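Why should sequence recovery work at all? Because a backbone constrains its sequence more than one might expect. Tight turns favour small or flexible residues, buried strands favour hydrophobic ones, and helices have their own preferences. The token representation captures these environments compactly. In the example below, the structure is given first.
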């Protein structure tokens, strides 16, 4: 299989911090299904994805298509999938007993992020069947909870220096704000960090349900942990070191322990 992830600053394996591709990497490693990663520069996502003739999985606020990664292509079945949750459900259906087993064990995933976000590209909930709907809802809420604090990752975002100016200009164009004005510092940053910590408290309560941890259902990881873990990679890759260190310690160290425990599924080829 070929897994398409976003190439950021070299060495790309070290800077990889795109949350949705990370969810896919965790799922592929969990399933132990052989794959190779193709690294796509930010500016090439539309052309690479366009060549596959699959619909965009997101839309900008004006309704135009937003081409994203991950994409997974499986030559065994000829399938090409372009949405992280769709990829995970495909892997579970196609390779039910591979690797560490069921990616979607039935479980309660009652974390709700109740704030409406005015994002330049709204988050849409993927359509899935049966008990996986709880995972789709969780995915949407976790995406929203982290996206609400994404501004914290602007200043140290690991762009490839060779294309950084072009990438920043494109993001600024989409959002309608100059890149330099997107970053947040001082008192405002402190406030947003406190909001982030408080928001993650809701997720921490879900983790506290199982006192032994480190995963939501104890010693067995599921796709729900990969959803959170994908975003922890975003935090690790874009927050200043001391803030990432602090985050790992928030709520009795739940997120630091989770990030470490997910290491067994984090290998990059
Ligand atoms: N619903 C999609 C969302 C994918 C998504 O938003 N991907 C981001 C990276 S995490 C992306 O490709 N961004 C490229 C860009 O902003 O140009 C999924 O779950 O796969």
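From this structural description, the recovered sequence reads:
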């Amino acid at each position: 299989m070929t897994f398409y992830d976003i190439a950021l600053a070299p060495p790309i394996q070290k800077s990889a911090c795109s949350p949705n591709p990370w969810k896919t990497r965790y799922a592929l490693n969990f399933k132990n299904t052989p794959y190779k990663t193709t690294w796509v520069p930010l500016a090439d996502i539309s052309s690479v994805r366009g060549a596959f003739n699959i619909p965009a999985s997101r839309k900008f606020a004006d309704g135009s298509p937003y081409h994203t990664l991950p994409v997974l292509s499986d030559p065994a079945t000829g399938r090409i999938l372009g949405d992280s949750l769709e990829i995970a459900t495909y892997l579970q259906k196609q390779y039910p007993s591979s690797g560490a087993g069921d990616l979607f064990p039935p479980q309660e995933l009652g974390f709700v992020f109740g704030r409406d976000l005015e994002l330049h590209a709204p988050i849409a909930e993927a359509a899935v069947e049966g008990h996986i709907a709880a995972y789709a809802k969780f995915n949407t809420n976790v995406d929203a909870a982290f996206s609400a604090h994404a501004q914290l990752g602007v200043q140290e975002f690991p762009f490839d220096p060779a294309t950084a100016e072009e990438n920043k200009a494109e993001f600024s164009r989409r959002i309608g704000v100059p890149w330099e004005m997107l970053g947040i510092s001082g008192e405002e940053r402190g406030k947003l960090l406190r909001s982030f910590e408080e928001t993650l408290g809701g997720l921490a309560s879900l983790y506290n349900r199982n006192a032994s941890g480190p995963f939501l259902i104890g010693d067995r990881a599921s796709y729900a942990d990969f959803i959170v873990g994908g975003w922890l990679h975003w935090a690790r890759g874009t927050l200043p070191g001391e803030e990432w260190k602090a985050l790992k310690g928030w709520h009795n160290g739940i997120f630091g322990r989770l990030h470490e425990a997910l290491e067994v599924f984090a290998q990059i080829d």
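A few observations help interpret the result. DSSP finds ten helices and six strands in the chain.
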